[in-house]
Amino acid sequence: MTVEEAKKIVDSFDENNNPSEEEIFMFTEAMKFLIEENHNPEDMMYLGGYYYEIKHFDLALKYYEMAAAYDYDPAYECLGYIWYYGRTGERDYKKAFEYFHKLMEKGSPVSTYKVADMYKNGYYVEKNQEKYEQIIEELYPKVKGMKNVFDPVPEVFTRLAKIRASKGEKEKAIRLYLYAKDFLAQRIRYNAFFGNLNIMKWLIDDLYELIEFDEDFFDFFDLYYILKSPHKISFIYDDMEQKIESVMEGNECNVCFNGRWFHSRDEFFQNACIGNTKLTAIYQNLYGFKVM
Q: Which of 11, 135, 255, 290 is the most exposed place for a label (fewest CB within 10 A)?
């Protein structure tokens, strides 16, 4: 394999939103080759990020630490997440705080809201709700004008919405949630990473604690709310009717979409496809949602 051949494999993989096992193998081999040849921390982060997305956290940690050895700032943030959530089986809030705080001081909005979370929860630092709210309030004007779908607008807006709701400012909270929902939906269209989907799920649950769900007017991501209980739903894609059914199994609903069963709404949003195209990638083209 040459560097050019490896880059072509990676470029092809980037354009494929539903790769085969063989394509995944070729991609990871190409990335490992590029890392060995070029020693580029961006490549290390890219492969680490791929492993993080598919929940191979030990391998994600390996490549994040490899990039951190080059003093590459994005690696510290990702290492913070590894230790904050205990992705490899061990939580270390001290390490997480140190990594996040290092980048917070350099102006990273992501690390800033994670430091805020640590004050909110009392992780490594003393629990301090006032400091949490202060950090989020100060962060909001810095992110509200951001336009790139991968900017942390939904993360900051949803945190601020909860603060607003806790103070009785319901309408302000609703506006923040709705803006965050639209922004996040566009991100998920390009990257249905489980972390992004979790944020959407929590956002939808919190939103419908503030407003009444309207069965006559809802969209694709509102299915997070309706699929929590048994329902039959239809919608239209490319002039053809599509059907979804949720059936209670234990404490959660299983979801059936066009004959394929998913164990949870999480699995449905992660994997449901029409043909080889994930629903999350074409959500803007799904319409006519109705409860049957």
A: 11
